[in-house]
Structures are given as C-alpha cells and as structure tokens.
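Newbie here. two chains, one complex. Structure please?
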Amino acid sequence: MPDLKRILHVEDDPSIQAVAKVALEAVGGFTVLSCSCGQDALDQVQGFAPDFILLDVMMPGMDGPQTLQELGRMVDITQIPVAFMTAKVQPNEIEHYRSLGARDVIIKPFDPMQLATQVRAIWSRSRG
Amino acid sequence: MSDHSSRRLIMGMLSSLAMLLILGLGVELLLRQYSLRQHELEQQRLLAHAYEVRAVLLAELNATLHLATGLASYIPAKQGRIDEAELQPWLRGLFEQGRHIRNIGLAPGNRIDFLYPLAGNESALGLYYPDIDAQWPAIQRVIASRKPHLVGPLSLLQGGQGLIYRVPVYLNDQSYWGLISTVIDFDQLAAEVESIARKRGIAVTITPAGQTTIPAKQDALDLSVSLAGAQWQLQATPLNPAKKTFTGLRMLGWGLAFTVAGLIGFALHTQQRRANLLLALNQSQRDFLQAFELAPQGMVLMTAEGGLLVVNQAFCRLLQLPPEQLLHRPLHSFCPPAEHEALSAHVSAIRPGHNNSWFLTLVDAQHLQIPVECSAAILGSLGGADEVRILHVQDMRERLRLQRLQSEFTASVSHELRTPLTAIAGALGLINGGVLGEVPHAMQQLLQIAHANSLRLQALIDDLLDMEKLMAGKIRVELRDQWLWPLLEEAVAHNQPYADQYQVLLHLVGPPCSVRVAVDEQRLAQVLANLLSNAAKFSPPGARVSLLVEEHADQVRVSVQDQGAGIDDDFKARIFSKFSQADASDSRQKGGTGLGLAISKELLERMHGRIGFDSVKGQGSTFWFELPLHATSTQRANL
C-alpha cells in the first residue's frame, strides 16, 4: 500500500491555508501544496500528483463541489481520496458531498493538532 | 354617569311626574263629578221625601179642617140655635175622628160658650175675643173675609203649641153668628210628621213663612206649605248627609294614579334603556365594521364552510381583486390546489378558545403566491348566517424577508467571524502544541490564554449559529435507532479533558444498560457535552459529576448530577430560555452564551424527548432528559 505523503489543499482563506499547511507538514510530516482557488488546483493537480486532496467548500468563483467535479475529469479520484473541509455539515450536505465522490468531511473549525490524524484516518479507510 | 344619561333620567322622571299629575287631576275631576252626582241624588231624594212629608202634613191637617168645616155647616142649618145635648155626641165623634184636635170651641157673638172637651180647657170658656188684643185684629180680618183661616203655631194658654182654625159662621140670612175655633195640637202633629220624616232619613222643621228663626243649613231644602190662609215653611235636611271627602275613593284613585304613573315611568325607562342599548349596539357594530374595514391587515368574515361573506379593503388589496370578485366564493379558491385539503381541515377545526392559527398561501390576481398567517375565531350569528368565522390574514412576505435577512446576517457574520477565528485558534494550537518548537515560558502562558479564549469564542459562535439554524428550521435531526450506552461512554470520554480544567471527574454510573433509542448521534452528543460541561463548570474542584441512566416502561432517563451550588429559585423559570445565565457575570466567570440549555431543549424535542432539572440551593443540581425507548430495546446489547 503506497504511503500518504503529498496533500493538495484548496482553501481561499490564506490564514486557514497557512495553519492547515503547518499542521499537516509539521505535525503530520506531509508535503502540502496550497491552492487558493479551484482553478489553481486544476492547474496544478497533475504536476503535483497528490496522494490526498483537501477541498474547502465555499470559495469564490468555482466552489468546492464544482472543483471536485472538474478534478474528477482530470485525475482518478477513486485512487486519490478527496475530503471536504467545511462548516456546512448538515446530514443532507454530507450526503451531497459523498454523492459527488468525497470520502469524508473534516469539520471546520478543525483542531490543527488533530488534522493530520483525521486526514490519515480518511486515507486509510479509503484504502480499505 | 354621562350628562346625556343624566338628562335622560331627569326627563324620564319628569315624564312620570307629569303623568302622575295628569292622572291625579283626572282622579280629582272624577271624584268631583261623583260628588256632584251624589249631591244631586241626595237632593232629589230629600226633595221626594220632603214632598211626601208635606203631603202627610197637609193630609193630616185637611182631614181635621174638613171636620171643622162640616161643623160650620151645622150651625146655619140650626139657624144658630145650638142644642147642647144634640151637639155633644156630634162633637165627641168629631173629636175622635180628628186625631190632632185638641179642643173645639164655639163662640157665638165672639164669646166662647161651648167647649169640647171641657176638661183641661176650662180657662178658655167664656173668653171673649175682642178682649184678646193680640188676636182680635186677626180674628176681625177672618170675620171680614168670611173664610176659614188657620193660624199658628201659637203658644196655647193650656200649654204647648197649637194651630187654630177659625171658621166664621154666617147664618142663612148672611148675618154673622160667631166663630168656630178648632185648636189643633201642633206638637203632636209635628211629632208625627217628624217621625214619618225620620223614617225616610230626613229631619223637618215647620215654621211660619217669613220667619227666619231657622238658620239656613247646607243641604237643607225649603218647601212652602199653604193651607187655609196659613203659610209655613217646611225645611228638610238629610239626617245622615253623605260624607263628601271620599277618602277611600281618593286614596284608591291616587294609588292607581301612582301605580299607572310608576308603570308608565318604568315602561318608558325600560324602553329608553332598550333604545340606549340598541343605540350602543348600533354604535358598537358601526365601530366594529369601521375597524374591520379599515384594519391594516386582511380581515374576512366567512361561513363555517369557508365561504367569504365580508372582506375588508386590506384583503382586497392583498389579492388585488375587487370585493365583488371575492364575495360568496370559498376561500380555498384563492389558494393553490395542494393546500385545499389542509385549509378545509383548519377551517373545520376552528373552535372557541383555541389557538386557531395556520400558515397558508394565497394566490393574487397576478397569480403571485403570497404566504400568509391566518388566525380565526368564531364570531356567532350574523345576518342570517350561523357560526360566522372571523379570519385575520397577515401578509407574511415582509416578515419572512426580514427573518431571511436576519438569518443571512447572523450566518454571514458568524461565518466571517469563524473563519479568522479558526485560523487564530489553529495557529495558537499549533504553537502551544510545540509544533514550531519550544516557546519561552512567559510567552507560552499568554499564548495559552489567547488559545483558550479563541476556543471559547468559537464555541460561542457555534452556539449562535446552532440556535439560529434551529429557529430557522435549518438543522435537520436524523433519528437513527442505536444503543444508548456507547453514546454515553463516548460523551464522558470526550468531555473529560474539559472537566479536567475544573479538576472534576465525570463518572458514568454502571452497570451498562441495554437500551436502544432513536436519536441523532451528533446532536445527542451535543446535548451531553452541554450538560456535562455545565456540571463540570459549576462543580467545585475535586468534585464528581455522575451520569446515570434509569430505564422506565416506555422511556429512559439520563441524568447529570453535579455537586454545585444549586440553582436560584428566581432563575429556574427561565433556565431554558435563550441567553439565560443565572447572573450576568456568570458568562464571564464560567464562559458560555446562555444558549446551551436552550439548544439542548430544542434538540431533545426534535428527538421526541424532553429535558428538565431538579435542584435544591446548596445541594447541587440534576439535569435530566428523557427519550422514548425504541421497540427493540429488549434485545440484549453486545456491549
């Protein structure tokens, strides 16, 4: 089973982006590429070749679900697990995210010390 | 009482008084008429009796005088020669027939030579008239007139009162013979006449005409009596004159007048009151209809089946239709078909004293759907229709727009706050977690304070957002049948780190129960976190907070027991209200928004449960919630 090393993080808020990057890199030891919008992620996903993609839901322009749909056309998201990071976690919303192909949802506000653990758990579950 | 009412009352009283005076005057007039009629009848009766008495008097006298006149015919027949032996029995018969004759004297040549009866009249025998100065002139006039003459009553020498009937006797040769003088016992005659009069209820007095010795009496009747040249006056008076005061009749009449005036006054007063009530009712109806017509919200009067009877201007404006296109049509014809059934159910369920409110969609003339809130009540009968309903129709568009704006505002502000807070809390968490290396001790303390307060602010915003979503119905609670015990274990484990800050131990009291409940796992965890964190916050250091489970027939009770100070009585009533804190300073001392219990209550109600508490000041508190048991709870849990 390949190891989880490279994470593509798409988040429009630079502060959250920075905190998540530190949390994943310093706590989890991952390599993180931060993108500030969906289009940026689409542009860089193939060059970066992530093992895991973390997507914010509410973003200007292309939102998280739209970005996921576009990503699905470019990479095999059955092999690269995708999780949303959002505060919008009504059961029906979670169902919606799952139906789009997301493996799970990390609830905002997140605990930066636990973020790496949460990501790793989702990644493990997706690998069976 | 208003001036208007006072004036009406005074007018009513004056009317009654006037009525009383008119009736009283009528009574007095009737009494006067009655009195006059009675007087007239009495006079007629008195007159009849007086005539009768006079007739008796005349009859008595005439009978006597005829006897004397007959004697006067005897003397000429004897050529003036009187044979005493022959005369004696004849006089005796005469005396016996004439009941009132006291004596009969024959005075040839004006000297009384013969007297019958002699006994008791001896003093008059031999009396020569010319010697009686008092009588002689009158006697001379009798002789000259050649006609019998009656005089008296006179005082008799023998005593008593008498009438004297003097008959001058002329012989056939026209020479004067003398006088026959018959003395009639007036006292006896008068007594007899008076006796007869008394039997007829009257009193009579007989006096010579021209004398005024009898004082004029009220109700007295005077009759003249003429006989043989004598003129008398017979005065008759009723023995028992009718009382003319008519006190009884007057009292009865006035009593009737009072009664009738009172009844008329009462009837007028009642009529007036009724008129006033009708006036007030009319005014009230006018006011009601005016208020109804001008009400800023839609108002409708409708039948029990929902047929529109009356609509106001606001309702017409709401649907942009004139009244004639609304009246007599069913309300549901202005609703989308999907709501017809629900509307019929609401209309038929309107009951007096119930909260008859529901939401509805109306469709206006432009086919625009308008959300409204209807409130209905039963008004009663109106214009022939029974059980009329009054419907208040509130246009909800503006309210919903404001609610949406408020909701969007809250969500937007909260989201905008939460995003930077997530970054702040995250960054502080990483620094405090030592991810970026060792931090100087003095700086670390301040960073921990900053981290703790950013977490506290996050919790506050979470609560605000939750409450807003609950109120807006945006939180979906998805019930799932599951074992309760593992949820409690998880809650204790999850909240113990928080309780550690207060040096409080959370303890789930065993043994494990085999209970299944239908809950939203995430929301139940939120409720438990709220109750457990509250208990920890309000317990003294070293205390234990117990989590207990009690299984009942159809429900399970979960209790969180703390060893805090208990809850003040005046706070108990509002403990589940939004933003409630026992003391305003609590929110600063203990943290929290005062929304936790309100959110827990809402969430539990969505899960068909209920929340409550028992607390005695100084003896801690127990917050509990109850959830209905799931049908499969009897199965043993694989714990």
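Moderator note: The interface with chain A takes residues 415, 418-427, 429-430, 433, 435-436, 458, 474-476, 478, 520 of chain B (CB under 8 Å). DSSP finds 14 helices and 20 strands in chain B. Thread marked as resolved.
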